[in-house]
């Protein structure tokens, strides 16, 4: 078994790949080794894995129903029997609400991560490849979105669309795509004048095929790093909207809304707002740590040096 593992490792670390699949697997394995050597990135990855596991197994992990109110048991402190993190103003178990709140956090993060980068990639690559008036118009629209603070613009969109978690996701996505468009445009401007793009064009490839088959794949690594680093901002924006009552609506156990509910008791019953605040801090830090590690792995400049 040991010799088999050793031969597999040597096969993956070979400098002469036998096929495209071999080269791809070798690159992935070398990237994993680089990421594993970054201890802070592994801590971030571990926290994210715990978050995902908590969200998936929330019904099994939560000791109480997060929606059940016990007014006779309200404002219980930390360490209370049956309520490790205490209870809120309506007697609901804070730990259970935080566990279920991880589902809402992941839901928002996943949807925004699917919408904003794809929209930014599409706008940026089309703008960079087409040039001319198309580039000018698309980039001026991007500049308009970048001119406003993200949270303020998200508040304006939510106010227009109405409160709710889906509208919050849409509002955050509408404010998050411009940086991806800028990045994709910059990548496209450097790629489109390359010799191999000229060769592909001479072979009869159209703009759509060049963008989707040859430019998009080269933008993906930078996009992944940017998405990971932006997760903290997305989580904070969602929590901010929830804090202001424009995100997930009561009685949903969204972390920002939980902080909003506990802010009136922050001096006497500090744990009501502090516990979800610490959860937001931990998850945001985890995504930042993982993003830094992925940048070391996927940055082509570092790979070339």
From TrEMBL:
<feature type="domain" description="ABC transmembrane type-1">
    <location>
        <begin position="102"/>
        <end position="291"/>
    </location>
</feature>
<dbReference type="InterPro" id="IPR035906">
    <property type="entry name" value="MetI-like_sf"/>
</dbReference>
<dbReference type="InterPro" id="IPR050366">
    <property type="entry name" value="BP-dependent_transpt_permease"/>
</dbReference>
<keyword id="KW-1133">Transmembrane helix</keyword>
<dbReference type="Pfam" id="PF00528">
    <property type="entry name" value="BPD_transp_1"/>
</dbReference>
<feature type="transmembrane region" description="Helical">
    <location>
        <begin position="223"/>
        <end position="249"/>
    </location>
</feature>
<comment type="similarity">
    <text>Belongs to the binding-protein-dependent transport system permease family.</text>
</comment>
<feature type="transmembrane region" description="Helical">
    <location>
        <begin position="269"/>
        <end position="291"/>
    </location>
</feature>
<keyword id="KW-0813">Transport</keyword>
<keyword id="KW-1003">Cell membrane</keyword>
<keyword id="KW-0571">Peptide transport</keyword>
<dbReference type="InterPro" id="IPR025966">
    <property type="entry name" value="OppC_N"/>
</dbReference>
<feature type="transmembrane region" description="Helical">
    <location>
        <begin position="104"/>
        <end position="131"/>
    </location>
</feature>
<keyword id="KW-0812">Transmembrane</keyword>
<dbReference type="Pfam" id="PF12911">
    <property type="entry name" value="OppC_N"/>
</dbReference>
<feature type="transmembrane region" description="Helical">
    <location>
        <begin position="40"/>
        <end position="62"/>
    </location>
</feature>
<keyword id="KW-0653">Protein transport</keyword>
<feature type="transmembrane region" description="Helical">
    <location>
        <begin position="151"/>
        <end position="177"/>
    </location>
</feature>
<keyword id="KW-0472">Membrane</keyword>
<dbReference type="InterPro" id="IPR000515">
    <property type="entry name" value="MetI-like"/>
</dbReference>
<protein>
    <submittedName>
        <fullName>D,D-dipeptide ABC transporter permease</fullName>
    </submittedName>
</protein>
